[in-house]
């Protein structure tokens, strides 16, 4: 039996992994899909204090308090930054890292440093109760997520929440980058996202999505865990063997 911890991306919550988690559990595996502070079912905790370090602590604490070991730790989109930080904080508990069409940052980099489109979104950010928020769930964002199936969109869109902007501005700080780099790593890219990256990401930055023990690709939109939940689960199940 394997243990999976699935970390969602910006604007989402643990809810987005329900279809994948169901398939993994059906095969007898243990699955955790926490919601990061300030989002979805934890939106009531939103505050100006939330940043990337808050979300790293969310997941690291879950792993420690549940006493999880040899974890297959997967992160989608912004969640890629989170899992890299978690692998640094509780390295001895992490077996593998999986980047699901995810941000892949190195020590000292913020999300805006390697995703130019993220910075462009600031023009439509809004501030509520002193908290600057991005990824408002409007038509443009929904298209970016690739939620083309009407049934999936009808289920998912009401659950989307705006995301604290400070999290994408704060650089990732690693205490032991070598330990993180030594973890077995799988990258699962989405075809549509890779096409956009080829147009916007320069030089060696692009290669980070092609450098891992395993690099796989699914021809779907950004929210692969919803649009192609069976393929995503099948790839995750390979890692348990």
Topology:
Layout (H helix, E strand, L loop, with lengths): L2 E5 L10 H9 L3 E3 L19 H14 L5 E6 L2 H11 L4 E7 L10 H4 L1 H5 L5 E3 L2 E4 L4 H7 L4 H7 L6 E2 L1 H4 L7 H5 L3 E6 H10 L2 H5 L6 E5 L5 H4 L1 H10 L3
Parallel strand pairs: 1-2, 1-3, 3-4, 4-8, 8-9
Antiparallel strand pairs: 5-6, 6-7
Description:
- The protein has 241 residues and is α/β, with parallel strands linked by helices.
- It has one domain: Alpha/Beta hydrolase fold, catalytic domain (Rossmann fold, 3-Layer(aba) Sandwich), CATH 3.40.50.1820.
- It is built from 13 helices and 9 strands.
- It has helices at residues 18-26, 52-65, 79-89, 111-114, 116-120, 139-145, 150-156, 166-169, 177-181, 191-200, 203-207, 224-227, 229-238, and strands at 3-7, 30-32, 71-76, 94-100, 126-128, 131-134, 163-164, 185-190, 214-218.
- Helix 1 (18-26) packs across helix 13 and helix 2 (52-65) packs across helix 3 (79-89).
- It is globular.
